[in-house]
């Protein structure tokens, strides 16, 4: 090209969850059977959507209105239902006008960061779901360092409110605090006092809160998630929700923002309205998934459907924690929400010299090629060796913008025997890998 056409922040748009697929596909073509533990798609892992729920989808498809445009802000029936459900729970009260639908939560996140002033930073967790961390740094411009608060296995993957307060106090560019609750990738469920503490800090310093609550109804092991709306008080805030993980229907691409206390601050109000002004140019988001929201979530069978899934994930979470217990240098905190499980390692356990034997010569060549890339993190080296030696495809924790080495797997496997084999294999290979140094 006669001039550069690449955005200066292009390298910030990293999504390791799907990035690992390239190596995995090459190895699969070379004869390695792959166990896909990298992506949170319940449907791909064999989870069945109940017939009564599919019946609601059929009814929507049969409704001729579902084939046309929806209102720009979202289907009226869906927003009416969601506002009513929120208000029935108590806490901050909203109207349907405070809800904005998007083509999936990723679309909402892109808009949220994309229409912030470039000098306004969002303090986010570490580790952090990469759509949040990469989009935040992308919007901040060239040379911008990540603005993060730390979560570690030692804390149960929960934040330190004193650290958040210090970061906010010392960095006047911070305009918002982001939380992911229940958390991805750690599966941590924040206690009410922690969510409330973030809200109090935001109120004290004139910030708004962003809460990714896509997994808010998928908690287990006796834990109940605290919705931001229940403790936000008068602080301006945005909650992000959707149907992809709940129904589950990830292919629907249907998520929404719930905006709280929009009139409490003129800058926040203008910011929210700016996002809506941008939506006007897109006309609308997909109509049919929105039209299922009130039908499905209002069905008396929906809560039982969610409860059965919570029970299944809770069982898997306990099996996960047991599988990696008493393994020197390995930290596997039991998740209590969402459907992910992280395995972390103590400092110095992983290094650049460890390896696993690979019998397939073609797979070994693909592994060697991948390992030759410069700047490879120690946990990505581990991930590649596990993939080549066992076919188990996990995601390195470094892909979630953290300095804690490890990997994330899912709790989604439907086959008990296959799940048991996966856990047993991982434990054995981790022991072998660590000892190989």
CATH topology of the largest domain: Aspartate Aminotransferase, domain 2
Strand-pairing-aware structural class: alpha/beta
**What is Rg?**
22 Å
CATH class of the largest domain: Alpha Beta
| Largest sheet composition | 7 strands, mixed
Quote the distance from N terminus to C terminus: 47 Å
At the fourth level of CATH, the homologous superfamily of the largest domain is Type I PLP-dependent aspartate aminotransferase-like (Major domain)
Beta-strand percentage? 5-15%
Architecture blueprint of SSEs:
Elements: H1 16-29, E1 35-36, H2 51-62, H3 76-88, E2 99-102, H4 105-114, E3 121-126, H5 130-140, E4 148-150, H6 161-170, E5 174-180, H7 192-205, E6 208-212, H8 228-231, E7 237-242, E8 255-260, H9 266-280, H10 287-297, H11 302-323, E9 330-331, E10 340-345, H12 361-371, H13 378-390, E11 392-393, E12 395-396, E13 406-410, H14 416-435
Parallel strand pairs: 1-11, 3-4, 3-5, 5-6, 6-7
Antiparallel strand pairs: 2-8, 7-8, 9-10, 10-13, 12-13
Helix pairs in contact: 1-12, 2-10, 3-10, 4-5, 6-7, 12-13
What's the short story on this structure?
The chain is built from 14 helices and 13 strands. It is of the alpha/beta class.
Please describe the structure with a list of short key phrases separated by commas or semicolons.
437 residues, alpha/beta, Aspartate Aminotransferase, domain 1, Aspartate Aminotransferase, domain 2, 7-stranded mixed beta sheet, 4-stranded antiparallel beta sheet
């Amino acid at each position: 090209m006669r001039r550069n056409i690449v955005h200066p922040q292009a390298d910030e748009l990293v999504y390791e969850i799907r990035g690992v697929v390239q190596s995995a596909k090459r190895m699969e073509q070379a004869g390695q059977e792959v166990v896909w533990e990298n992506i949170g798609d319940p449907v791909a892992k064999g989870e069945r959507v109940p017939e009564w729920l599919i019946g609601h989808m059929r009814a929507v498809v049969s409704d001729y209105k579902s084939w046309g445009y929806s209102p720009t802000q979202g289907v009226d029936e869906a927003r009416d239902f969601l506002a009513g459900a929120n208000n029935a729970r108590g806490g901050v009260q909203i109207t349907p006008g405070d809800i904005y639908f998007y083509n999936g939560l990723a679309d909402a996140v892109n808009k949220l960061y994309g229409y912030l002033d470039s000098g306004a930073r969002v303090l986010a967790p570490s580790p952090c779901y990469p759509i949040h961390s990469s989009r935040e740094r992308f919007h901040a411009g060239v040379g911008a360092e990540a603005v993060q608060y730390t979560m570690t296995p030692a804390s149960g993957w929960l934040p330190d409110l004193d650290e958040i307060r210090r970061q906010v106090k010392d960095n006047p560019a911070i305009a918002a605090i982001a939380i992911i609750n229940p958390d991805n990738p750690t599966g941590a469920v924040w206690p009410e006092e922690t969510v409330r503490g973030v809200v109090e800090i935001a109120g004290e310093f004139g910030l708004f809160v962003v809460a990714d609550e896509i997994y808010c109804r998928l908690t287990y092991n006796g834990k109940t998630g605290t919705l931001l709306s229940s403790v936000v008080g008068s602080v301006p805030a945005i909650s992000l929700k959707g149907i992809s993980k709940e129904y589950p229907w990830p292919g629907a691409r249907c998520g929404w923002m719930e905006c709280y206390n929009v009139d409490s601050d003129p800058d926040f109000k203008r910011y929210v309205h700016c996002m809506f002004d941008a939506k006007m140019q897109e006309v609308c988001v997909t109509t049919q998934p929105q039209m299922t929201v009130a039908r499905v979530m209002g069905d008396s069978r929906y809560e039982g459907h969610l409860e059965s899934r919570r029970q299944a994930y809770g069982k898997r979470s306990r099996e996960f924690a047991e599988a990696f217990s008493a393994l020197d240098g390995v930290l596997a905190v039991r998740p209590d929400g969402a459907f992910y499980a992280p395995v972390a390692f103590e400092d110095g356990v992983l290094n650049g010299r460890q390896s696993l034997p690979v019998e397939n010569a073609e797979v070994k060549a693909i592994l060697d090629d991948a390992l030759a890339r410069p700047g490879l993190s120690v946990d990505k080296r581990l991930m590649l060796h596990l993939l080549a030696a066992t076919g188990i495809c996990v995601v390195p924790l470094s892909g979630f913008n953290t300095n804690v080495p490890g990997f994330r797997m899912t709790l989604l496997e439907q086959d008990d025997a296959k799940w048991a084999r996966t856990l047993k294999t991982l434990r054995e290979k981790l022991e072998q890998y660590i000892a190989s140094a």
